[in-house]
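Predict structure. Chain length: 417.
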Amino acid sequence: MKVLLSAYACNPTKGGESGIGYSWTQEWLQHGHEVWCFTRPDERADIEAYLAEHVSPEGRAKLHFVYVAVPGWVDYLYRWQFGVYLHYMVWQYQAWRAARKLEATVGFDLIHHATYGSLQMASWLWRVGKPLIIGPLGGGQQTPRSFQSYIPDWFKSETMRNTISRVLMAGDRNVRHSIRHAALVLTTNQETAAKVRALGARRVELFLDSGLPESFLPAEFPVREPADQLRLLWLGRLIHRKALPLVLDALTKVAARVPFHLTIVGDGPVGAELPELLRQRGLTDRVTWRGSLPWAEVREVFLTHDAFLFASLRDSFASQFLEAMGAGLPIITLNHQGARDFIPAEAAIKVPVTTPDETVAALARAVEECYDHPERRLAMGRAGYAFARTQSWPARSQRMLHLIEEAVPHATVLQKA
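Prediction complete.
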């Protein structure tokens, strides 16, 4: 089968959406299909170097990258905070024009729009007239307004985002038409699924956007050696919506009898504020900030802690949850958005998102629960590890292909091309 994969973000050397985009090229290839991947020219050097080293000549012969460019002035505006919206929309237009020409000679069987996984901008490729799969998509979730005090740039990061989102979904006909024409739309949380259904989608399925390489998963559940203190881990980008101060506030409410130490892994704008945030809360001696780490070291960090404590206020899901579960870590988090929908109840303590005071207190009690009941901690870790094994890239692609065969009449995606 001939598959057109739209992956604006696609880079095998990076994580996040770029890694997701590239992973889908490999999954389609592994199932025997020929792939044309549309992406940006600035990914070209990394992609071609990686392909030469890691993909067989036979695989490279069936994997075609089409580097879709935008005008220089659009590239220039990309550096502006909201310039990404314009850049992405123009790129989508250019990708549609390129796909229309290529369709005349290739004859695609299926189109998969993979990245960006953004409901607000969807895809122009519905215009090609071929069976269309969109997603996984996020973007329907919003930061709870009662937690506005944790987002000092609320107007810029939340009010403006939400306004642009509403304008795009109401005014961009490509959003509505792509959702209505798609045979299948995959979403990463219930909030996004509800918006997709309201736009007229024919079939919607919850589906994680991130997956794990099989090499990341230990062959057996990793049992940790007992330690004198509860070793907590926070990992992510240090930006306001990830709400690290919310976690720090919770740690100040943990009972004095509980010995704990928090490791922070990640970097970003909030990093400059971190020493003062710790000093104000009296946590300087109980927190270690390690900055950004290479992927191999990150895996080891997961394996040397006792619980993963993460309370992002806005996230489609957060891939680090899956990584933590893959390493057998129990989760302490908020009961909303993708974390609510995908993390198994028996793998986590998910606290209500009500008011800051109540949520902070509930997070503190969850830390105490993990310390007081190591047997529960172990059971949560095992439940998360079992779930993570169902989310390896091969397992995920197999499930998606089954969904496509149900949604697309006469599809042969599971049959080797």
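Summary: The chain is about 45% helix and 15% strand.
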